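This part of the workshop introduces the protein records we will be handling. Getting from the letters to the tokens is the skill we practise here. The record below serves as our worked example for the rest of this section.

…
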Amino acid sequence: MTQRKTLNQLFDTLGYEFKNINLIQTALTHSSYANESKGKVEFNERLEFLGDSVLGLTVSDYLYRTYPELSEGVLSKLRAKVVSEVSLAQKARELNLGEYLRLGRGEDNIGGRNRASVLADAMESVIGAIYLDGGMETARSFVLKLMVPVIESYAAGKGPQDYKTDLQEYLQSRSSLEITYRIINEEGPDHDKWFTAQVLHGDKPIGQGQGKSKKEAEQQAAKLALSMLTGNKEYEQ
């Protein structure tokens, strides 16, 4: 159980104090912890679902009002980068969110506290919890405080690397063929999965990658595809 003192530290970091402690504890609980508790503990997937919607609406509204000169297509690409696993994991690390997570022993032992997919999901779960605890305006203020620097960075052409978006932009400027991803292999127990993803341009495989989550594997597949298509050595690093 997360200690009250620890929660107070987190509240200070978030700039929000929860009235319903159960909400934030659930937001910080990974499925691996619930599994080891034999289903007696609620975990954060439902809050993640809710937080994703709150995040998407808030960012969309901000982009629409702040950048009236941008087209729908450009706004969509910008939003995709802002709400990506890459961006959310970065913000979670800035908040030291990993230190507060309740993880199963297996997930913890393999570095789950710093895994991008775990951190991004937890970040969305916290947003969902704030929405339920404090309402939409409170959640909106939190999201904007958190994500406006990310929005401004991406709008200026900077920000953390999102290979899937980069690949989409590269190919769409040259071809009308569809870009799709598929998971072609999945290995390991539930608490230590290893995924292999393939990216296809039309029906042609153009890259393959691996990762501890499906999203991470897809990012690595897109990275390899960019390296092969552009000859850019930076994508090989």
User: Anything to note?
Assistant: The chain has a mean pLDDT of 89. The CA atoms of residues 35 and 54 lie 27 Å apart. DSSP finds eleven helices and three strands in the chain. The longest strand covers residues 179-187.
